[in-house]
Request: fold
Amino acid sequence: MDVGRHPNIDLLAYSEVESVEGEAGDFRVTVRKKPRYVDESKCTGCGACAEKCPTVTSDEYNLGLGKAKAIYKYFAQGIPSAYTIDANLCRNFQAGKKCGVCQKVCQAGAIDYKQEAKTLEFPVGAVIVATGYELFDARRIPEYGYGRIPNVITALEFERFLSASGPTHGHVHRVTDLAVQEALPEAEKTCQKAFKGLERFEKQFEMTSDAFYERYESGEFKGGDEDYEKWAAAVRAARKAKDELEELRRKAESIEAAHRLAFIQCVGSRDIRFNKYCSGFCCMHAIKEAIIAREHDRDAQVYIFGMDIRAVGKGFEEYRNRGAHEAGIHYVRSRVAEVTEERDHTPVVWYEDTKERVVRRMPVDLVILSTACQPSASAKPLADLLGIELNEFGFFKTLSHLPLDTTKPGIFICGCAHSPMDIPESVAQASSAAARAAQVLSGSGTMRLAS
Amino acid sequence: MQEHTEKAMKSHNPEVRVGVFVCHCGSNIAGYLDCPALTEYAATLPGVVYVKNNLYTCSEAGIAEIKSAIQERGLTRVVVASCSPRTHMPLFKSACAEAGLNPYLFEMANIRDQCSWVHMQEKEMAQEKAMDLIRMAVAKATFLEPQQDIEASVVRNALVIGGGVAGLSAAIAMADMGINVVLVEREAELGGLLRRVNRIAPRGDSAAERIQELVKEAAGRANLRILLRSEVTAVSGVIGNYEVTVREAEGTERQELVGCIVVATGAVPFRPEGLFGYNGETVITQIELEEKFRAGTLNARSVVMIQCVGARSPERAYCSRICCLTAVKNALAIKETIPDAHVHILYRDIQMYGMENEKLLWDARGKGVRFDVYDVDRPPVVRHGVVEVYQPLLGEVEEVPCDLVVLSTPLVAPEGATALANLMRIATDQNNFFMEAHAKLRPLDFATDGIFLCGTARYPATVAEAQAQGLGAASRVGTVLFKEKLVTSALVSQVTERCDGCGYCIELCPYGALSLEEYEKDGVMRRRARSDKILCKGCGLCAATCPKGGVVVLGFTRKQLEAQVDAALEAV
Reply:
């Protein structure tokens, strides 16, 4: 918000850097502004387009847990507040298909299917790389069952569960229970339609379907009108739909909030197979989510399985203790071996109790994986483009005596593009990188070009 | 109720044309409250001439609607019923200003944080409360008065207190930006705690060389003055113009006028007197081990290190962040100096957070350093030549023979931190570390404007972190000192004619914004309070205390608050 409104900041959203030439104090940057097929200056962000758009997809922001459209805004309060058409999904961009619904409903006339990419060129004195990170794909550890066992989710997915504006409005449920709830309206519709379909016959033959079917079963209408066969089939279909609906309703009624939660730490971190390093923020993230889950549900029981609980920031150790005392978090020192699934979709955590020297199993409602912070896939191409180096972990390499300086003078790095870190450190580093840039732009000291 | 409405109607000024914008905040509000109904309700309130329902009032579209309504409907007051003023008031106020309406004629009703979010389960009552909040906001808005922001000058000088890594980094960066910097260091030498350190973790650079580099950089800047063996003894003034008294080595005092202050006073290692047999010879601390490395006097075949000595305890609840890293670094250094030495680290959680630190842990394991968890309820026992540690996996006590025990103790706030905090009226936390304005979003700012924080004065940090924070603080200073002038809110205390100089309010003011002054009226000398508009934060303690209405806070005058209270009572 502050960035969007700052008079000295030009925000180029939905854009990518194509090239950076020159040296500290005198870089020439080329940026490609990708077509969003919506005129940013006209779009009011009203959302009428997305409401009417016929192409439904899963909501990336809600990690696929909700629904989105082919014309979308990544999240509600994004800056700039303009919609974007996903050309890979939009019917207008598919061969042989036509739509144009959004253009029709847009009162601002902002939709422009013919919009093209723009190339911008401008000079800068310094470059700050703040491209962030990606999360480890938990599917790479098959023994934890992510992607196979529905009630195993990631900590970021759980974040959306806990959010009042998330797909479950802040209620914590098993994923399999959500599937039941989601199926319910569809089943109701199917059932209603099936019974509606019987009305035609009932009118035609002036008989209730139940009475008809009883007589049909006793062989009364054998070999008669073709309609009788159709009616009988429709009755059977309607009864089946009703049974299915009732079954779903029974299941839905018995659904309880997910009370027992198990967090597994270091999923893809501190693991010689994937990333050797510690991702830094996941222990605190798990504790925070556990405390919030308990605030939402006084019956929540949370277990955090980790090799060490790394609560190293200001106030963090106190927060970890608060988690134990006020939210009843059980910290279990263990590297979880495996997650299995019971018949009723209950996930079971298998681990070694390092205090009692026994292998234990713990059935829970949801397993939450604290996935590792990884260098983003764009780090390597960006490094090549900027002419800077990566370190052995794939993050951008920095100088020992100047912790924000890359291997090329005038290019600085901050946040999780630098290395895994938490919010306060990211914020502090962002200011630091700004100071380094300012030194290059205004100072004449030797430090400005130190390399 | 009838009577109150009539009263409100009677006092209604035809100049007052209120516009009310009710925000859905997506489903944050609309998921629990009936926003269209709230909007209709707002339209019935006295003075309201325009109402609007928005999905997101803070969106570009919502802001455009506020602006056009001011211009096209001639609104003279704007009320937004939405989220928290803490996050969005500045945005809505500037929208008003951009449309030509004095931004102080804006009022906000918090129907999200204080209504829909906290009453999700009681929708009907929440709806009524939202109506109350909107009615109160409209009533107050009716009596709002236009104000002008307060402007003040800025001196482009900065003071850095502390000449360690953080302070030096901040000073150098500010000097490069063109700020005149004065750095005050209590000791006779620059470098702070790093002077006692051998090598810098995790990369193993020489601490002495790092200090040398920084000192050389600092010395090479003409607009950076360094005052050694000096201390800050008094601070007065406000952001943009702080008057600082520095007592120099010879005992002479000098005055410095600066726009901002950076606090980089560092921290010191805790001395574990009476813990684990600490004696400074066979049982020492990590910093004493570092000194042995520097002096080349290390002579040990078998070393046991014990973590969290005096930390993560009832007396000192915090984790000191860097001691595990220090221990592993020193364990590797021992292995480097004496390859066949045995090093054993007893820990609770091994805090090698982040990318490079964890690598050091792998390296140490590879080099044969042994790590064992100890239970805080059964801590290790140090005896002569042996440390006893309970091994939960074996279920028995193991005796580890050793000729040196190294205790990892936390960094603690230095003596004098509290005195400095009092001097500058800045906050410290329960551990006497200085306290930032916001733990997450403003880690380098103090709540007091114009004073910034970096390094271990804030919390234990590695050298790289302290350096980065020093640079960060420099950048924060830059955001103040590169302004031509400072602009602050007009909603501060104002002394009225009814003040008789009783002085009740003076001591109460937490910001030192009030003082007594004498003045002459009708040939008689009188006293009255005087309010410093830059120091005042508008907290209202003075106004609430004064028995005579001798001091008020603009934007919260008696009339405005009474209108709000009357509106609240209408529902009763």
